[in-house]
Amino acid sequence: MAIMSTPTTFRPVLERIAEEIERTPGSGRPADYIPALAARDPRRFGMAVAELDGTVYGVGDWREPFSAQSLTKVFTLALDLAREGDALWEHVGREPSGNPFNSLVQLEYENGIPRNPFINAGALVVTDRLHTRTGDAAGELLAFLRAESGNPDLGHDEEVAASEAAHGDRNAALAHFMASYGNIDNPVPVLLDQYFRQCSVAASCADLALATGFLARHGIRADGTRLLSRSRAKQINAVMLTCGTYDAAGDFAHRVGLPGKSGVGGGIIAVVPGHCTLCVWGPGLDERGNSVAGVAALDRFTTLTGLSVF
Amino acid sequence: MAIMSTPTTFRPVLERIAEEIERTPGSGRPADYIPALAARDPRRFGMAVAELDGTVYGVGDWREPFSAQSLTKVFTLALDLAREGDALWEHVGREPSGNPFNSLVQLEYENGIPRNPFINAGALVVTDRLHTRTGDAAGELLAFLRAESGNPDLGHDEEVAASEAAHGDRNAALAHFMASYGNIDNPVPVLLDQYFRQCSVAASCADLALATGFLARHGIRADGTRLLSRSRAKQINAVMLTCGTYDAAGDFAHRVGLPGKSGVGGGIIAVVPGHCTLCVWGPGLDERGNSVAGVAALDRFTTLTGLSVF
Amino acid sequence: MAIMSTPTTFRPVLERIAEEIERTPGSGRPADYIPALAARDPRRFGMAVAELDGTVYGVGDWREPFSAQSLTKVFTLALDLAREGDALWEHVGREPSGNPFNSLVQLEYENGIPRNPFINAGALVVTDRLHTRTGDAAGELLAFLRAESGNPDLGHDEEVAASEAAHGDRNAALAHFMASYGNIDNPVPVLLDQYFRQCSVAASCADLALATGFLARHGIRADGTRLLSRSRAKQINAVMLTCGTYDAAGDFAHRVGLPGKSGVGGGIIAVVPGHCTLCVWGPGLDERGNSVAGVAALDRFTTLTGLSVF
Amino acid sequence: MAIMSTPTTFRPVLERIAEEIERTPGSGRPADYIPALAARDPRRFGMAVAELDGTVYGVGDWREPFSAQSLTKVFTLALDLAREGDALWEHVGREPSGNPFNSLVQLEYENGIPRNPFINAGALVVTDRLHTRTGDAAGELLAFLRAESGNPDLGHDEEVAASEAAHGDRNAALAHFMASYGNIDNPVPVLLDQYFRQCSVAASCADLALATGFLARHGIRADGTRLLSRSRAKQINAVMLTCGTYDAAGDFAHRVGLPGKSGVGGGIIAVVPGHCTLCVWGPGLDERGNSVAGVAALDRFTTLTGLSVF
Fold first, then answer.
1. Could you give the number of structural domains in chain B?
2. Chain centroid to CA B29
3. Which of B192, C135, D115, D265 qualifies as a cystine partner to D67, CB 3.0-4.6 A?
4. A-B contacts at Cβ under 8 angstroms
5. What parts of the sequence cross the membrane (chains A, B, C, D) (predicted)?
6. Residues D253, D270: contact at Cβ < 8 Å?
7. Which residue among C103, C169, C180 places its CB closest to the CB of A108?
8. Is residue C228 classed exposed, middle or buried when 0-12, 13-18 and 19+ CB atoms within 10 A define those classes?
9. CATH of the domain at D205
10. Model pTM greater than 0.80?
11. Residue A310 lies in a domain
């Protein structure tokens, strides 16, 4: 990691990136498995940086809420790890999947233990376990995001939640399949309701960059209390780097060089440990489900700043 | 990455680790696919640290040569990238394999393009391409390792090379299979000869820690000349982090948090970008082919020093 | 097929087989995924032959009802084909699966179209389609079995049906997964209810040998009316031969040489086209889910009589 | 099987089929992996029937030699089984592969034991074993084909043999891969030479229909001597039915209802046990590697004559 000799803001860098992204003809397509996502204009773009002290700034649509989708998997993972610790790892692995993000194949070869907490199967397990421990996994997530972002209006997009439920057969299949191996505690309909609500969180780049701050602060929340030990916070960063961008994790590490997590709503969050966190949003996705503009913006960011974990 | 406020040496840390490893009853088994490796005493242990300026020190058997095996894949990758640049990535991917290290399955689904340069199939492609560009891939590798380590006696273990060739059916299968997709340039017997010589390099922890130095110096060789651009050196670190330890890359990132590459000879090299490089050796392997003592020692090292890229 | 020059009965052959089976120490284990099946004594054995004219006779427990399970897949296939004809084959294939009987892997690679109607996924599709066409797939099946066997008491085992439902996560996963590809018409809970009732049919060797008669009579039912064309009846025999015994179809064809279908209740039905039908029952299963005594008995039957389609 | 009340010839049926095939616009493409096959005119068509007594007749190009390719796998299987008996089945399975014909995937999951003797991997094992037992597998095959067909001019197409060798990387990969599991006895280059010569046999529909006669005569050769027991001849028919047409075995059984074996040269041989054998040739292949005209002709044959094993 390149060490910046003085504290700095990245405003000029963000502005330059926003200009470049605007000039580049849009590419990628919004996720089309639910109508609420498909309707998004692929040319929208926002990017925010949150510094360790909670300062946040951005460019473009950085204050507009979008569908967080899989970005929330990072937070439920942290919330569950904070409660049950390493016992979680008996129920979900932490290896890259090497396969598209909702594959059933590996799950079958590996007896119902998902490869990692960021594929859908793994996130279902984490939500199931968090729900068992809290009685309200989705509520716990929402409270955490509101607290960290300082945005009490952050909430669910009910249209997206309903749409997820209406197109939920594949996640239902995953949940039942893992239940057949004894790796799901709650009734499948209860779990799916929790899971779809979690996916339907709507938040802005500003909100999500702030909410990710605990990973740059080695486990410390916005209010100065500790959510996770330093070691466990680093471990989440490691899982993000190796598993955070579906089956493009190697390419993302190669191009961007930061722990990151993407969602099919077009958002990506990224961590510069000890420095800052980023959230970028662009609805057009590449064929592996990652935001085209988002990856490009983060690639430019690390190139221009010299920041990277490598 | 935790920043050490003053330059320091890690001697006391290495000594503590060596004591701990010695106290722990040995586990793991030496690789048994060739007799030359199977004969190794699994209780052997060595560990070396090389600082950016070429200072190197260690504990245990840190000056004893062992079979480098797959550790050499890092160097042939660097040597080929230095020559052909990104064109290489049309012939080999950079995603974690998600499968055991010599799997043919993914190769078949992906039309003869190996997942990454560190699985055997990918290393065969890299060696093939380096051989086409140099006329002597194994010689090029040897010259590089001698120059970086400052050890002119560093060479091949002829017994291991002969043993590899005698048990080479699986690598021959991989090479012919990729050749059937047009992804191999040289005749398969020529390629295999080059590859087995590369695998049979014998070097010590000291040699290999020093030879890895260019990755901590962002592309600069021991003599101050540049092998790779800063950006490309970081990319190799990224590939090591996501793909360097077979199908345990996620676990290694989680426990150790450093770019690393393991070999079935029991060696592991690791990089603390901007700080130092490490090489550890212990012949007993876990079921995924990584040195049990080696992973444990690196885990302790990052825990005790706070160093990690996350 | 060896041609028997005169009509004959197979009584002496059956008696000899029953003696041999009794002498052989029992092997195989009852299916254990639901308690109702696991409790069965693996030494039970029955075998019946039904001639074309409806004459039926047997040995051992040939009149005792057992859980028909997957044997019913043959009848729902015939009932649906009789209604919709070849359109069915756009929704389910007719190739051997090459994988264990409830694998999700192939289903994923092949976009939700199950390999054949005799793996669970395929049977779910057939039941779904029959239910759409009749409004009561399970009732239709029961009516058919009662009519063909002449046994009005033939019915469901309610304990088995409840047990199937309580352990139905894997079938629920299959159904939701296919629904995600648009290959299921009815709501998944409705389909599963129909499917589990179908699996829970309890019938004897006598009942099932008689009910299979239409396949030996080239499509003609017990009452002389035609259920299927000659060509379509032959096609069902072909699907039984290539796909009827899970991933042991090749071995079954090799040893027995007759179209057959097995169930995890320990039953196997087999067809000698133009001659007779057989049903054999022994609860102990081999590792591929086929009755050990059942396969052995049919192997002996074809060896002793010279009957086989080859 | 429909029983023909009197002996008969199928001349009129063949003529009708030839007319129909001619009227149908050609479809399918010749195999293109070697130039010698790709050059074949896809509109060529021949079909021959051989009766049990050695009478043979045909239509179209039924006397023109074509590349037998995988059709020879049936004969090497018979020749090896005649020598070593059931011991062969410890080295090759007899289950449908469920995957394209030269897949490495299953081979890897099943430790180097090919699924059946008719996929390339399985045929390599059979040739290897026959070669060990005879010292000249290809010569043994040629002698058998000449004797059964009564055609002393039947031989190899040297251009095809050379072309196979020049494009042999995939078969070399298969052979080396199985050798790595200890399932190949001879040196790989020796085996490949034998195998490519076997594939390059050139023979006519008349030759091949006659050479297949022993399978319709339950193991008896043309000269009245016994090659295989009745039981073993039936078993080969069973393996042909379940595994003879790559991953279209289920479809072939469904449409044609006879044991058959196809080759990428466009030939298909089929057996009506106790009646006759057929060979049909049309170079245009469907996407699964079977002759389009060949399958259509056999489909018509069984429909028009009512012959089928079901």
1. 1
2. 19
3. D265
4. 113
5. none
6. no
7. C103
8. buried
9. 3.40.710.10
10. yes
11. no
Task: Look up C261 and say whether it is catalytic.
Answer: no
Tens digit of each residue's pLDDT, chain A (310 residues):
343 434 458 999 999 999 999 887 667 888 888 888 888 888 899 999 999 999 999 999 999 999 999 999 999 999 999 999 999 999 999 998 866 545 676 787 788 999 999 999 999 999 999 999 999 999 999 999 999 999 999 999 999 999 999 999 999 999 999 999 999 999 999 999 999 999 999 999 999 999 999 999 999 999 999 999 999 999 999 999 999 998 899 999 999 999 999 999 999 999 999 999 999 999 999 999 999 999 999 999 999 999 999 9
User: What's the number of CA atoms in the CB half-sphere (13 Å) around residue C103?
Assistant: 22
Q: Is residue A206 a part of any domain in this protein?
A: yes
Residue B32 lies in a domain: yes
D159: enclosing H helix or E strand: helix D158-166
| E runs forming strands in chain C | 46-51, 56-60, 66-67, 155-156, 201-203, 260-262, 267-272, 276-281
Query: Coil, helix or strand for C68?
Result: coil
C28 contacts C156 by C-beta, under 8 angstroms: no
Residues of D annotated as catalytic (active site), given as ranges: 70, 73, 195, 246, 264
Q: Two tokens at C127?
A: 């039941």
A42 domain residue, yes or no? yes
Task: Sort out which chain A residues have CB atoms less than 8 A from B247's CB and list them.
Answer: 95
Q: Confirm if D77 and D117 have CB atoms less than 8 A apart.
A: yes
Q: List the structure tokens of A9.
A: 């803001």
Instruction: Decide: B199 and B145 in contact? Cβ < 8 Å.
Output: no
Look up tokens 């050609």; give the residue.
Answer: D26
Structure tokens at B87: 């064109």
Nearest CA in chain C to A102: C108
Helices then strands, each counted (H, E), chain C: 14, 8
User: What is the domain extent for residue B232?
Assistant: 11-305
Provide long-range contacts, Cβ within 8 A and 24+ apart, for B226-230: B227/B78, B227/B82, B228/B78, B228/B81, B228/B82
Q: B70: which DSSP letter?
A: G
Nearest chain B residue to A105, by CA: B98
Residue labelled with tokens 């027995």: C256
- Please name which of B74, B77, B72 lies closest in space to residue B91, comparing C-alpha atoms: B77
Q: Give the number of other CB atoms < 10 A from CB of residue D89.
A: 16
